[in-house]
Design goal:
By secondary structure, this protein is of the alpha+beta class. The chain is 31% helix and 28% strand. The protein folds into 2 domains: 185 residues, FAD/NAD(P)-binding domain (3-Layer(bba) Sandwich); 150 residues, D-Amino Acid Oxidase, Chain A, domain 2. The chain binds flavin-adenine dinucleotide.
Length: 402
Amino acid sequence: MPAQRVAVVGGSIAGCAGALAASRSGAEVVVLERAAGRLQDRGVGLMLHNDRYTELEEAGYLDSSMPWHQLARRPWAVRDGAARTGREIGVLPLPFRSYNWGSLWEELRTRIPAGVEYRTGAQVSRVAQDAGGAVVHLGDGTQEHCDAVIGADGYRSVVRKAMYPGARAEYAGFIAWRGTLPEERLPGPPGAFPDRDAASVGFPGGHILVYRIPGPGGVGTSVNWVFYATPPAPAAARFTDPRTVQPRVMSDALRRCQLELAARHLPPFWQEVIHLTRPEDTFVQPMYDMLAPSYTLGRLVLLGDAASVARPNTGSGAVKALQDAAALEGALRAHGRWQDALAAYSTERIPIGQATVELGRRLGRAQVTATPDWQTMDQPALEQWWLEAAGPTGFGGHALRR
Ligand SMILES: Cc1cc2nc3c(=O)[nH]c(=O)nc-3n(C[C@H](O)[C@H](O)[C@H](O)COP(=O)(O)OP(=O)(O)OC[C@H]3O[C@@H](n4cnc5c(N)ncnc54)[C@H](O)[C@@H]3O)c2cc1C
């Protein structure tokens, strides 16, 4: 691939990885990120399947210098009277590493070669293309002329809008309440929450998943919880349009709703974990589904959540974004023309995006909107339920074919 000028819109996980992919294949790259500061303080925890980690390490997108915490088991429990952590109904394997979102972003950001310009406070308002190139219009009235544009600007992508104006993320009907607290603040007794467990408690209409992650900046250990349920219609109204401003803000109504659900359905230990989390360390994440008709059109190409949005129940949002970048790099190296490389990339990644979105829908139904009677389940019933919902592969991401 001869050196070309590439603009990457968005500088989060997909944006940093996309900048790496394009620069490694010889392009001159500018990253345009609308956030004025650094992003690392805004995320919390995410999980990465061990096998996906190995592939991405081999591809040069992850390495063990990024702080991580090893998980192994996913015990499922239900509330049972005063039993402190509830009654365990079974355990599923969970061969995953967990990351602090901020450290993962920080490490990817550090990897971007010095020759790449990473511009912050750069809000892209519009993207256009013709046979000779592409133009990125910025909110301050300036323009960037380039040979190709990588849209890594998340689920409300302006690059996708230029390609497929009708392809919008659709609200999935439920949200996640999320929070973190330092491990030292966990309630007793010691050992109630084993180090390698990702504890899950199921209840009618939702569940909570709790696991440890490296602390902020890789220092210490934090506890990350994700509480999935359907908020009442008035409180959820602002999520139905994915263009909503500040979708992550925890309103008083949503906070009350979560505390009521927790009081009704969670064992005492996990209720305390939620109460011990400072309000400023909580936020909400609405669930959306979206798959772009194609990941490329002319000189425009989509990566990560701009290309496909799957519910985080799949445990694969970051993996999908990093794999997209690795696949794009492979295609850019293998083909002599942009158009051929982008077409090959799209053909390779669309089936993965589609499978992940479908898996997210199944897991959302099984774990939130059409939950089973967990109270009556035992180990074989739990395994059977999980197999029917998740299938044999795909949870934590599909294998990267390169
Ligand atoms: C601040 C933040 C915190 C997150 N925290 C978590 C977390 O704790 N756990 C988890 O599992 N996932 C988290 N995610 C989501 C996760 O990063 C993604 O699902 C996944 O990694 C794919 O990321 P992405 O880069 O495709 O999209 P995103 O991470 O959504 O990144 C899109 C980026 O594009 C930028 N952008 C959008 N529009 C424009 C524009 N018009 N012009 C310029 N820039 C633009 C945004 O500011 C953002 O940085 C977080 C995302 C963000 C942005």
